[in-house]
Amino acid sequence: xxxxxxxxxxxxxxxxxxxxxxxxxxxxxxxxxxxxxxxxxxxxxxxxxxxxxxxxxxxxxxxxxxxxxxxxxxxxxxxxxxxxxxxxxxxxxxxxxxxxxxxxxxxxxxxxxxxxxxxxxxxxxxxxxxxxxxxxxxxxxxxxx
Amino acid sequence: xxxxxxxxxxxxxxxxxxxxxxxxxxxxxxxxxxxxxxxxxxxxxxxxxxxxxxxxxxxxxxxxxxxxxxxxxxxxxxxxxxxxxxxxxxxxxxxxxxxxxxxxxxxxxxxxxxxxxxxxxxxxxxxxxxxxxxxxxxxxxxxxx
DNA sequence: AATACTCGGTCTCATTGTGAGACTAATGGA
DNA sequence: TCCATTAGTCTCACAATGAGACCGAGTATT
Lengths: 145, 145
Description:
Chain A has helices spanning 6-10, 16-23, 35-42, 47-56, 61-67, 73-85, 107-111, 113-139, and strands spanning 59-60, 89-94, 100-105. The first copy, chain A, is mainly alpha-helical.
C-alpha cells in the first residue's frame, strides 16, 4: 500500500526516467497516454482544492463553497460531477426542504490523498524559492531573443 | 462527525490531516493559502506534460511541440515562460540563424519530479478503476435531486 | 538565381471556458 | 409579511485558449 513512500522515490527516482520514457512513446508523442486523462482531471483548477476540503470531512455543497470562497456555484457543481463520475467522490441526497446534499471522498478518492499530499508538501517547501524566482524574473531585463 | 477513517490512510499520511487543517484556516477558508499559487501552476493543463518532456532531457522549443502534438505554439510559449518565471525551467538562447533555444529543468524543477512521479504512478495504477467508474456513471440513470 | 524551408516566437481572430448573478420552491425565523 | 436558506440551473458577458498567418535571415533545393 505504501510502496510509493520514501524508499522507492527518495533515492533520486531511478526507474522514474524509464517510466517517463515509456509514457513518452518511441516517437516522443505521449499525447494519447491514458495517464493524461487522469492528470487532466487532477490538473483542474478546482479539483485539488475540493479534494482537500473533502479530505477533512464530509461537506455539504454550500460548505465547500464557503471553504473555497472564490469558486462559483457553476464550477463547483461541474467539479463535483466530474469527481463523482470518476468515482473519487460520492454524492448523497437527502430529500429535505430545502434540499441537502452531502459529498464525501470514496476509498478511491482517499487513495489520492497520499500522492497529493506529497505534491502539496513540495509546494509548501518550495513556495519561498518560487516566490523569489518570480520576483527576480519580473525585475530582470526583458527576454533576450 | 468525521466519517474519515484515518486509520486507512495512516502509513505515511499521519499529520497529513493536521496539515490540511492548517491549510484550511480556522474559518474553513483556504482560498488565500500560499500553496495555492503553486498548485495553480502545477495544475495547469500543459505544465505537467512539459515537465515530463523535460525530465527526459533538454529539449528545443520545437522538440517539445513534437512531443506534445496538441499544444499550440501560443500555449507552449506561455507555459515555458511561466515555468521559467517560477525557476523550474531554464532557457538558453543560441544566437544562430534560424534561432535555437534550449529548455531544461533546473534543480528546483527536478525536485518536483519525485512528488509528480508519485502522482503519475497513482494515475497509472487507478486509471482502470477510473475508466470503469466513468462508464458506470455514464450508463447510470440521470442524477437524482 | 530564385525559391522554399527552418527556427522561435508574436499577432489576430474565432471558438471555448468561466464567473456573476437571476431564478427556483418549500420551509423556518424575525 | 418578508426574507434567508438549500442545491442547483440558466443566461449573459468576459476571459482564456486554439488555429493559423506572419516574421527575418540563413541554409537547402531547384
